[in-house]
Amino acid sequence: MSFATLTEQPPTQAPIRDAGFRSWHFYVLLSMVAATVAVMLTRETHPAALLLLSAAVIAAGLAGVALHGALAGFAGRGDHRAALTLSDIDVLEREKALTLRSIKELEFDRAMGKVSDADFEDLSGRLK
After folding, report:
1. What is the rounded CA–CA span in Å between residue 24 and residue 65?
2. Angle CA(53)–CA(57)–CA(60) in degrees, nearest 5?
3. How far is the C-alpha of 69 from the C-alpha of 77, rounded, in Å?
4. 8 A C-beta contact, residue 9 and residue 125
5. Core-most of 5, 34, 59, 94, by most CB within 10 Å?
6. What is the mean predicted confidence (pLDDT) over 97-109?
7. 41-75 CB burial, b ≥16 within 10 A, e <16
8. What is the distance between the alpha carbons of residues 107 and 43, in angstroms, rounded to a whole number?
């Protein structure tokens, strides 16, 4: 890969994935509603006690998220990530080798005076 080829390639960005409604959204929303109801039902209470009550109810909602995740994992319905295949690993290793070679070539071009310091910082930052 030459320096000219390196500068011509546009940066690639990962596509944004819309996950939609997740189970933890339900638990957090439910715990926030429960905290609001608990504060509204307790009249003439010290503000510190209201904060502790709200924190306890929200913590219970987060514990529900953790429990749901654990039970979903035991049931085999958790978030699974596919393991990398050997061909995926080979592709990643090849891309890593090309990137490292490009960095070395860029450093050599800088040492030879072909690349300015500002361009070097910009390009090496993108490569790293």
Report:
1. 6
2. 140
3. 9
4. no
5. 34
6. 90
7. eeeeeeeeeeeebbeebbeebeebbeeeeeeeeee
8. 69
Q: How many CB atoms lie within 10 A of CB 3?
A: 16
DSSP state of 77: -
* CA distance linking residue 128 with residue 99, whole number of Å: 8
Q: What is the pLDDT of residues 38-93, one digit of tens each?
A: 989 988 889 999 999 999 999 999 999 999 888 888 887 665 667 778 888 888 89
Q: Would the pTM count as exceeding 0.70?
A: no
String of DSSP letters for 22-62: -HHHHHHHHHHHHHHHHHHHS-S--HHHHHHHHHHHHHHHH
* Under 8 Å between Cβ of 58 and 31: yes
d(C-alpha 112, C-alpha 101), whole Å: 16
Contacts of 65 (CB under 8 A, 6+ apart): 23, 24, 27, 28
Tokens 């009550």 sit on residue = 53
